[in-house]
Write the structure tokens for this entry.
Amino acid sequence: MNKGQERKNQLLRVALDEFITKGFYGTSTRKICRKTGISSGLFFHYFPNKESIYLELVKIGAEEMHIEKAAAMQAPKEYLLQILQNIFEQLESNPFFGKMFVFIDQAQHSHVGIDEVYTLLKKADIAAQWIPVIRKGQELGLFHAGNAHAMCIALFGAIQGIAQEKVRRPQTPLPDVSWLMKLIERESISC
């Protein structure tokens, strides 16, 4: 990675921390520059304003939240299990990933006036992506019967809470993924 990309990544990491702790309106480019030890001029070389660095972070987060719908619909249980395993591996090894979870949740509830942010967040809506997968799992008898939206919220809410706690306290142990799957998974009946 070249020095320019390293510096840009450093700005993104510091901005992410600032947006998480202070929100969009409480974050200033001046503070980001001070924490990274770079001049405002150099900051503006990478990002023309605060809105652009915020948008860049939303793009990164939205990309991470995209699911492969065809694969998910073909094998819903296996796909969601793999997604959960990947999320937990990233939470354990990559603090930036966990912080993105917190940031995207905050971004979904903030009104920052950047149209592209709203478009990206709408595409990354977990409920809109996971509900059809859960319904498919219900049709196949893999998941509990009931409201797929409620199951999605229970499952993703648990993941969100775990991610928030991992960001707040990095030493927090992660639960077994199978425990979360039990929130939606129908117990197999043996004959």
About this structure: DSSP finds eleven helices and no strands in the chain.
